[in-house]
């Protein structure tokens, strides 16, 4: 029997009830936790970093074309940032945008974590498998955490603009060459670089502490967002040196992969994404 809308008022009521039910389920997914499987954080050593990278490289070799296809958009985004940087009004924010893009990297690599998880479980790992995340019971929690990182990125860009305005701004640079000369030959330019680097490092630390294992953990276990974030913070607290070394490695690799024209990101991002899954597996029992 064909379905009809029927009475508009009753149809609207049913739609509201359905939306409310979905919202309740989403909230349950965000806060749910299995008390029988509370994550236990391990003590890490610096030697765990190359081991995670080796495992990530192995995953990349097993699904090279699929992983490269998934991250092909990253170089395009980088090139778009460079093109926008030729607009002199946007030029002072070009470096903050490029560097700040790493803040949302943990969320952008979620499909790579899923591929590594599936390979570890002996399942198919084609690029379509990465979209299984969309059917994950933790999707609402994953999206919530991704929104946090996106908000952190936006706030960082606003702060970077404020730092520029307080040093070399607020007027837009007259030319690219003139702007570079201001940065490296004036006290205000050096102040902008030093303050911007310090503040940017604080934003990077905030993103790293919250997300270093939380995304893979949400995929691996239905623990809920609060437990995932708390576990990530505990990993950072218990293994601060190793986590900072991991963050520095990721940041350096992304910078190197951005030269020239971000083409290297096609290789760097998949390896780092797969390695992040294995770093999580070493960090959480």
UniProtKB/TrEMBL annotation:
Q: Where are the transmembrane segments?
A: 67-87, 93-113, 125-158, 190-219
Q: Which InterPro entries match?
A: DUF2189
Q: Does the keyword Membrane apply?
A: yes
The UniProt record lists the keyword Membrane: yes
Q: Which UniProt keywords apply?
A: Membrane, Transmembrane, Transmembrane helix
Name it. Answer: DUF2189 domain-containing protein
- Organism (species): Tritonibacter horizontis
